[in-house]
TrEMBL record:
Residue intervals passing through the bilayer: 6-27, 48-69, 81-103, 124-149, 155-177, 189-208, 274-296, 330-356, 377-399, 405-426, 481-501
GO terms (BP aspect): acetylcholine biosynthetic process
Source superkingdom: Eukaryota
GO MF assignments: choline:sodium symporter activity
Topology of this chain in the membrane: Multi-pass membrane protein
InterPro entries the record matches: Choline_transporter, Na/Glc_symporter_sf, Na/solute_symporter
Species assigned in the record: Meleagris gallopavo (Wild turkey)
Protein name listed in UniProt: Solute carrier family 5 member 7
Main location: membrane
Amino acid sequence: MALNIPGLVSLSVFFTFTLAAGIWASWKSRKKQQNQNPTEMAIVGGRNINVCIGLFTATATWVGGAYINGTAEIVYLPSKGLLWVQAPVGFALSLLIGGFFFVNPMRSKNYMTVMDPLQEAYGNMMGSLLFIPPLLGEVFWFAAILASLGATMRVILDIGGSLAITLSACTVILYTLLGGLYSVAYTDVIQLVFVTLSLLVCTPFALINSATESIYYTATHKHYQDPWIGKIEKQYLGRWLDDFFYLVLGSIPWQTFFQRVLSSASPSQARFISYLSGVGCFLMAIPSVFIGAVAASTDWNQTSYGLPSPLERGESAMILPFVLHYLCPAYISIAGLGAIAAAAMSSADSALLSAGSMFAHNIYRKNLRKKATDREVLWAMRTSMLVFGAGAASLAFYSNSVYDLWFLSGELVYALLFPQLCCALFAPSSNTYGSAAGFLVGLLLRLLAGEPALKIPPIICYPVCSLLDGSYVQLFPYKTFTMLFTLGTIIAVSYLATVLFQRNLLPRRWDVCNVLGETSTHTPLHQMDKQTGLQTGVPCFPPEGKATNRAPTFMMFSSHVVFSPQKRQINV
């Protein structure tokens, strides 16, 4: 196939237009930045993003290239079908639940990132450990998005996937670096409008193609392959429920979600944006469902693609670009390519900004450089985005299944971070001991369950663990079980630690995390300054000739100590 010059030109125009919009938004944010904190402007847009822009950017964040590609792919697969397309409903419910339960406590306290309540409840060091799962999730998400875009460009434009991934990553990184959330939000508006219009234009042409049987007939009758409605066999019900709860609850503790609601002017606006974006996310999946149904109803021998079919060639992950290219006129398929590019960029910039925001605000400022200026934190954020973006682009070159990579990216967040966030916001009795125990137990359970996609055999075989295609597959809802076990561990160990110290079953000088918050054992810093002459924020070792009532074992735990207002822990 020859190089598609018109498609390449139109895509170049779209990329240029998006970049120009991002640069314009960056200039606009700098004008508003004169009287505001530059870091706050970059991370949460100065908390003055209006409702319309917030709704567009929140919806576009979830409607990415992996979302629309993956939805079409699952509908097309004979072993799956529509009943296994859980992301649209799962994401919609996630945004509704997040808006109802989580938005108000997060926005009312003016948090900057999803990690803030975790560090407030469990300390900076524990918060740094909890930063690892969402970081991996954002990087893998970015990689999945770029991989789907590269596959699409390779099919429709006949250019190398690596070139497409590189160009897309460079464009996203550039305008995200320049304008932060403002650039991301305003480009999301353009991208979501383009995705909506393009898919609405392409879908009818695919439906009326002469090589395609009626999707209403093939939904329930076997024609070229099994009905695309699909079915859920009894033995796979546990796995279906596990995946569904993973999407609903595991999609909440992401910085990409909270970054939008935390940028709103008020908690009520934040909830409104969360509710409506859930509806928009569901509606945006409908064209992809139709495209997947069309692919399952097509005689590919009547197209220039020929036989064997995409399924038999192992190319089902690219079914959406195949439908656009082989079942739509050339000028229409170009519009469809633009839709996928826009969807990819709208989610990629969100993932990149989220990872950089958490690193700069929660790791660099609160751990590495506690006295860093706002300008220094801003540059740390930009540098980290460059590193994370380059790493994600590298991973995208090795992606074989878009949907698998997208689905796997949040498992650690679901199993480890969601229970931690719930306890930090809704269980005041939880403490650092419980958080650490929950993290270790949850991580161990998840790793021992194995991962077929990565060819990691399970050590723990849960009930109905089956051998399929040479790999053991857990049909038991082990992800949800791990999440619930982690939640129970946090609560139980927190309670046990409190009881042991309260009843003096353990010496209180061993309470290095200060779960009791008693001044008789641990002197507050402002009092210790007067008694010992120590300055807050400097190493807490007594100067020569000065006595202090702080236990030596406690002083050896950390060289920097800051007490939390909740008195549940120390921030180290």
